[in-house]
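A quick aside before the break. I want you to see a complete sequence-to-structure record at least once, exactly as it would be stored in a machine-readable document. Don't worry about memorizing anything.
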Amino acid sequence: MANIEKTEFRLPEEPQGSRASSRRDTVDPAAQAGEQDAELNLRPKSLAEFIGQPKVCDQLGLVLNGARRRGVTPDHVLLSGPPGLGKTTMAMIIAQELGTSLRMTSGPALERAGDLAAMLSNIMEGDVLFIDEIHRIARPAEEMLYMAMEDFRIDVIVGKGPGATSIPLDIPPFTLVGATTRAGMLTGPLRDRFGFTAQMEFYGVEDLTRVVDRAARILGVHIDHEASTEIASRSRGTPRIANRLLRRVRDYADVHGDGRIDLAAAQGALEVFDVDSLGLDRLDRAVLSVLVKGHGGGPVGVNTLAVAVGEEPSTVEEVCEPYLVRAGMIARTGRGRVATARAWLHLGLEPPEGALGVHDTHSEE
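That is the input. The structure line, written in tokens, reads:
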């Protein structure tokens, strides 16, 4: 496997709302402490092993194979998409496919140009530099990155004031792999310097079932196909969540059974961990309940929702809302958040005549 070297010069500050992570370990796509080693073992090691994202894999395979045949360093790669879909895994695979070392850091860690210069000065020819959350890189470091990506050269400033001197430093050709969950926050000059851009999509139930089956084989767990499908259907379209739910179901099967995971064990475990049939957890349902039962379906501002459920507004907006909107249960309007007919039905309530999508739900029935 490719040599992975992880370098971070400054740890980013803990964002507001992070206290919710302790409540959302089961379904939060962000990796938690103690889970990373297990997740590393479950990561595929090559494009052939990677499940899902067929278009991205085919396109990336062409980029890497073409560069190998010409004997040159591949173009820089930008991977965008929600957390948990495999961006970091794809960066590891790129280094593995090229047979080079992988150097890892994150955008928040590169606060100064000197932080980036220190990394680039130690890079070897053909290495892969992976910057996670690249949209959060500091502006001075980003401007230095422009020259490094295009000309494989950086200017190091020595001294201060009128006596400062710029010393040009050539760096060997390398491949930058940037990952972002917010592609819209990338500046135009940075985005345009990537030769290949890939958008990672949410997974379907069929692909997630394959992910669960593969993880079960690696973990040495016997699982029925119906149980794999059940876990996959509650994983929010995210492989990281599917792998995490599998480990929780394994715990349940070990404690309450013989270790074999069947449909009953999967459903029992997911009920214990408050993950319902659509993948909603306690906090998701609390937001829906406040919106529907407390405010008649809205519209309601995000600050009001956050106070009602005892969370930070950023937690509701960044953790809960994306999936609830994608599941068709909440609509964002200029006046606030509005519950759809699907949200009313999911809570076991009859939607009012004026609810969004009420005619669609009646036609489905």
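Two observations worth writing down. Residues 239-256 form the longest helix (18 residues). The mean pLDDT is 81. We'll return to this after the break.
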